[in-house]
Amino acid sequence: MNVKLYKAIVSSVIGKLAVYIVQFTLLMIYARLFSPDDFGKVASIFVFVVFFQLLSDIGIGPALINEKRISKSELNGVFTLTIIIGIITTIIFLVSSVFISDFYSDKIYQLLVLCIAPTVLFSCCSIVPYTCCLKDVLIIKINIIEAISHIISFLLIIITLDFISPIVLLALRSSIFSCVRFFILYKVSSKTSLGRAIIGFDFSIFERIWKFSSYQFGFGIINYFSRNLDNILIAKFLGPIKVGIYDQSYQLMRYPLQLTSFALSSAIQPVLSEKKSDLEYIANEHNKLIEKIVCLSLIIFSFFFFNSELIVYLILGDKWLKVIPLIEIFNYSLPFQMIMATSGAFFQSIGRVDLLFRAGLIGSIIFVISIVTSIFFYSIKATAWSVTISFYSKFYIYILYTI
Fold first, then answer.
1. Looking at CB atoms within 10 Å, which of 43, 116, 188, 367 has the fewest?
2. pLDDT above 70: residue 3
3. Mean pLDDT over the full length of the chain
4. What ranges make up the beta strands (E) of 174-316?
């Protein structure tokens, strides 16, 4: 394996492990401080936050990483545009709070949108400083920043726990995290090769990156619906408590993905994009990496298979025991998800986000059909099985596009 890629992967995994430990520890505390109903209502809103984050991102980050030369004025122009887009999408999100509360038939969602809305703005403003750090492969530093941001948001929640409603604090958590993360990233970006961005109006770079970013944006949109439609429909038809249980089970299952495949993905594109014209080389690196992921995924699958009850009890506590059967179902899709999770980075490395978009579109159509069908059973177990089976179909599509 390429030495630079290997070092980037090791750095990414170590950094992600630090974030993982922090998130894991804080989740154990949050699960005991807040009820499944609180988690469910916030999770119901957060699916819309993710959508508006996608609208504000428009695929800029990966497109910038794929560019070999970016002038200071071009970087400033991109930064200015992300701020403008972030402000506009945040305002639209705030205005949509009325429609969201009507959709869920509960006025509390208007307050929750107000608390969570800053997440959209600061996430958008973070795109350029984050990309500057990632382009220099400062992966450990990025993950340390994430860990610090989580800790600071946790401390602020604990300090104000006796003065503010629990559900409001839970909603504010992501806004505090995004705000702290942006300011630290912005400060750190001054030490990168691209430097710290300021307000500027040179938008000429978009002539070069618009095609790449548009496909990346399109993939993000269809991937959003394939990852969040289940939460939206469960919240609408089964209620916030069910979506709280469902969301926590899905998030627990995704922690191994965050530590392994997602950590690898952040290292792959910045390193391999330098050799994007050498397809044979990238294919060999892909195959070597997949072999290791397969072995690791089987170990993690076995651990979850035999210890799901213990995992839930230790991390979430006894009021979350209904999560256990859902984790057992999701676990069957874990090896397939781990293999597929790195595919996007390889497509990005060779500049073929059009293939990523097509594969994602087909997989998302299958996913949406499965979710919509399963919701008529009025059972979160049926939805969990539907999600798991749809990952098998997406894996088959992934194989077709990578051979």
1. 188
2. no
3. 83
4. none
